[in-house]
């Protein structure tokens, strides 16, 4: 019996090739997204399973109880906790810290900001990351690098024994290369590890500081988590008197098993890089929504062919076939389609697998096996059964006479059939996705090309080498023809600036957090910044005690007008007292994500990291001359100059993410258009005689096209009416994350609607045109 089901199913697939292709392609597209989500879900449960003793390793969490009895859960813990546990409890086999180290590192040639952590000797034993070459960083002033970071610093040269300078902490010798990627996924991500024996921080003995770093404990075999948490409760009770202050009432420590870190059950403050259940649910939701659009096609096309299969259903029932047997026939067809779609989905999966977004956020580091393949097959069969259940239930319940009386089948609302409703949903979802993606793309373009308030056309940015005085290079470049200004800065505008607390009074009751850049006197004219009052900084040591502030700083410090602020003093956290030399007009020096904040421009040559070279328009040979100067001064270092416009574009355009989102939108549109094509094709086939009669009676081609197309055009209009307000809400939800953003209006909806009606109109028009120009004699000769 099963053999007959599948035999008839394959015959029907061959008979209706277009409908079969549409269904297989749609199911394959939806399943490809679902497969990506399933792989990520599998990988999320495989986090940290490669460590030596994951069943005995725990991360310590801290619940901070405020005076109001509010609870805040932190992934971090006070650093002294590890030493207390290791000293007072003999069931603790190992204890280690994982403490973030911020700042720049340089090897004398280039300056980088790797993701760096302080670790102690127990870290390498507890987590067991393999050392590819060399030894672990257990001695003071030593470090280990990942292979990728070692190549960024030293290229193909052997990094062992090389020295890296860390601002404020001295020189660190590279002792080894560590592998943190090939074994599997981990909630810990790092590029460099430093020996904690060189860490000098009050947080190591400060119980009140619970946010400085992560603490991990390795228990001896046989010790249960319940026993461990009783000890943690005892330690928390002992620390209550130490940590009580105006804000914190008490601590509560929890042990989180390494295997329970991912997927995350709760949102932790200072969390690491484990995926959350919300992220996984969102991914699977997108995949299921895409698959649902394909299922709509299957339901649509199957119900559309209900009239042609009425005799089949009737004959089956006449010869004694039961309803479940008729349902089984249709379900078998849907399962076959689903399995064929799975094969095509796997091909699509391999095509998108190399995409950066897919590797970074979805399947990177996940190990596949036969279990994954079996999961795919089971998912495909279940998807096929669910897709076939609705049409199988409806068609198996039809009486032939009922089907002959109605070509539209079930009614959802007055005048709109189930099939038409599904087409509306498909195009509404596709248009919603397009509007959302277009809003995101317009915002990214605005952040790259918008008006920041400073000149960036014809400005070349050049990174300075570490420990090299900028004056020599700046002077040599300034002598080249076509160079208007050579300015030095600690960072480029459009990036994240440094900040510090500043005060007007020494009692420090009027503190203001202020962003700052170090600049020389050339920057203001080079970038066209406007001084509202005062004067520019001078290239002298006297200027080190002078600053230029923006209008927001005037308000923050209460300095009155721009002219009134000149000469007034500000006290910085390093006990420097500086005077206001000038006030500059507000400009966007960071990102459009944040509103303008107080800004201070100071002259600190030791902090210079970039040159900004303004080149006069029409100077065609200036770039080559600057490169030649660079090669003369630094013959072994590559020239890394970049136009300011290109820097902002690279920083704010996320092409990898947009490309993948574009693929999702294209898939949704393709599914909708193929479903529409199938419905239009079936509609024109069933109205062949009607078209022939209209032509014989004198109807023009365009009248026939309009008669055949209007019902489908109306569906596109309804879908647009649904998607536009939803798209507006979705777009505004994205734009609310930016202080400065684009607007949503006709400039957003117009291109999206134009593309929708162009593709939809093309799909409808070509098929109806073919039907309209057909010879009526062929349609009517059998009458």
Considering the chains and any ligands shown, give keywords for the structure.
783 residues; alpha+beta; 13-stranded mixed β-sheet; 6-stranded mixed barrel; 24 helices
Describe this protein's structure.
It contains 24 helices and 26 strands. Helices cover 49% and strands 18% of the residues. The protein is globular and about 100 Å long. Strands 1, 2, 3, 4, 5, 6, 7, 8, 9, 10, 11, 12 and 13 form a 13-stranded mixed beta sheet that branches. Helix 2 packs across helix 10 and helix 7 packs parallel to helix 20. It is α+β, with helices and mostly antiparallel strands.
Return the structural class. alpha+beta
Mean pLDDT: 86
Strand residues, percent: 15-25%
Helix proportion range = 40-55%
Shape by Cα distribution: globular
**Number of extended strands:** 26
Radius of gyration, CA atoms, in whole angstroms: 34 Å
Residue ranges: pLDDT <50 for 5 or more in a row?
Answer: 406-416
Report on the biggest sheet.
Answer: 13 strands, mixed
Q: Could you give the distance between the termini?
A: 40 Å
- Count the helices. How many? 24
Summed up:
The protein is α+β, with helices and mostly antiparallel strands. Mean pLDDT is 86; it is low at 406-416.
SSE topology:
Elements: H1 2-15, H2 17-45, E1 57-66, E2 71-74, H3 80-88, E3 92-101, E4 105-106, E5 111-112, E6 116-119, H4 121-127, E7 131-134, E8 142-146, H5 147-154, E9 163-166, E10 170-178, E11 192-195, E12 213-219, H6 225-243, E13 248-257, H7 277-304, H8 310-318, H9 323-352, H10 356-363, H11 370-397, H12 400-405, E14 411-413, E15 416-417, H13 418-449, E16 459-463, H14 470-478, E17 483-489, E18 498-503, E19 512-518, H15 523-526, E20 531-534, E21 546-550, H16 551-557, H17 562-565, E22 569-572, E23 577-584, E24 599-602, E25 610-615, H18 622-633, E26 642-643, H19 644-652, H20 655-686, H21 688-696, H22 701-735, H23 746-772, H24 776-780
Parallel strand pairs: 6-11, 8-10, 19-24, 21-23
Antiparallel strand pairs: 1-2, 1-12, 1-13, 3-6, 3-12, 4-5, 4-9, 7-10, 8-11, 9-10, 14-15, 16-25, 16-26, 17-25, 18-19, 18-22, 20-23, 21-24, 22-23
Helix pairs in contact: 1-9, 2-7, 2-9, 2-10, 2-20, 7-11, 7-13, 7-20, 9-11, 13-19, 13-20, 13-22, 13-23, 20-23, 22-23
């Amino acid at each position: 019996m099963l053999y007959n089901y599948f035999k008839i199913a394959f015959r029907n697939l061959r008979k209706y090739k277009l409908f079969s292709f549409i269904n297989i392609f749609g199911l394959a597209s939806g399943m490809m997204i679902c497969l990506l989500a399933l792989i990520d879900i599998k990988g999320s449960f495989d986090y940290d399973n490669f460590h030596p003793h994951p069943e005995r390793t725990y991360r310590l969490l801290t619940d901070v109880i405020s005076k109001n009895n509010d609870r805040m859960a932190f992934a971090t813990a006070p650093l002294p906790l590890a030493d207390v546990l290791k000293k007072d409890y003999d069931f603790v086999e190992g204890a280690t810290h994982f403490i973030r180290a911020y700042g720049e590192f340089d090897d004398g040639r280039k300056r980088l900001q790797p993701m760096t952590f302080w670790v102690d000797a127990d870290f390498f034993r507890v987590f067991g990351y393999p050392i590819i070459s060399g030894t672990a960083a257990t001695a003071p002033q030593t470090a280990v690098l990942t292979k990728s970071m070692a190549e960024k610093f030293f290229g193909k040269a052997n990094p062992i024994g090389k020295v890296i300078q860390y601002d404020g902490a001295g020189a660190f010798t590279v002792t080894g290369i560590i592998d943190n990627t090939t074994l599997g996924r981990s909630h810990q991500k790092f590029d460099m590890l430093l020996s904690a024996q060189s860490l000098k921080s009050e947080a190591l003995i400060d119980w009140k500081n619970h946010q400085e770093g992560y603490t991990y404990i390795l228990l001896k075999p046989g010790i249960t988590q319940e026993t461990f948490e009783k000890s943690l409760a005892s330690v928390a009770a002992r620390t209550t008197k130490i940590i009580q202050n105006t804000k914190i009432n008490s601590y509560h420590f929890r042990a989180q098993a390494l295997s329970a870190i991912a997927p995350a059950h709760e949102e932790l403050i200072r969390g690491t890089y484990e995926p959350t259940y919300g992220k996984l649910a969102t991914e699977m939701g997108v995949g299921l929504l895409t698959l649902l659009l394909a299922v709509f096609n299957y339901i649509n096309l199957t119900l559309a062919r209900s009239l042609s299969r009425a005799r089949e259903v009737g004959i089956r029932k006449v010869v004694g076939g039961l309803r479940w047997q008729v349902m089984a026939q249709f379900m078998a067809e849907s399962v076959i389609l689903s399995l064929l779609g799975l094969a095509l989905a796997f091909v699509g999966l391999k095509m998108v697998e190399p995409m950066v977004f897919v590797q970074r956020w979805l399947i990177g580091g996940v190990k596949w096996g036969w279990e994954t393949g079996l999961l795919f097959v089971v998912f495909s069969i279940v998807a096929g059964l669910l897709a076939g259940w609705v049409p199988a239930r409806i068609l198996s319940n039809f009486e032939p006479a009922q089907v002959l009386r109605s070509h539209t089948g079930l009614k959802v609302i007055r005048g709109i059939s189930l099939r038409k409703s599904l087409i509306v949903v498909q195009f509404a979802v596709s248009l919603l996705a397009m509007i959302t993606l277009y809003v995101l793309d317009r915002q990214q373009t605005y952040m790259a090309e918008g008006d920041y308030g400073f000149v960036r056309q014809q400005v070349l940015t050049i990174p300075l080498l570490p420990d090299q005085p900028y004056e020599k290079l700046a002077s040599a470049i300034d002598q080249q023809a076509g160079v208007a200004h050579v300015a030095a800065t600690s960072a480029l505008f459009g990036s994240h600036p440094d900040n510090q607390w500043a005060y007007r009074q020494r009692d420090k009751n009027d503190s203001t957090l202020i962003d700052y850049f170090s600049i020389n006197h050339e920057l203001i004219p080079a970038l066209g910044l406007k001084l509202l009052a005062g004067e520019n900084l001078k290239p002298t040591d006297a200027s080190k005690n002078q600053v230029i502030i923006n209008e927001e700083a005037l308000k923050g410090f209460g300095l009155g007008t721009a002219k009134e602020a000149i000469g007034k003093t500000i006290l910085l956290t390093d006990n420097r007292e500086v005077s206001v030399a000038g006030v500059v007009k507000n400009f966007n020096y960071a990102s459009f994500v944040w509103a303008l904040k107080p800004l201070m421009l100071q002259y600190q040559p030791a902090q210079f990291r970039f040159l900004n070279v303004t080149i006069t328009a029409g100077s065609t040979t200036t770039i080559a001359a600057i490169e030649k100067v660079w090669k003369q001064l630094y013959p072994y270092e590559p020239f890394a100059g970049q136009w300011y416009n290109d820097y902002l574009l690279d920083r704010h355009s996320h092409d990898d993410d947009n490309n993948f989102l574009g693929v999702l939108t294209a898939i949704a549109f393709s599914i909708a258009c193929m479903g529409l094509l199938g419905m239009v094709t079936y509609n024109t086939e069933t109205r062949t005689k009607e078209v022939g009669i209209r032509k014989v009676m004198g109807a023009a081609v365009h009248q026939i096209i309009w008669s055949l197309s209007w019902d489908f055009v109306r569906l596109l209009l309804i879908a647009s009416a649904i998607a536009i307000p939803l798209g507006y809400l979705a777009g505004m939800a994205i734009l609310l994350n930016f202080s400065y953003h684009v607007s949503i209006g006709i400039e957003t909806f117009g291109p999206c609607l134009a593309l929708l009606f162009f593709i939809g109109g093309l799909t409808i028009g070509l098929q109806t045109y073919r039907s309209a120009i057909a010879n009526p004699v062929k349609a009517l000769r059998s009458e």
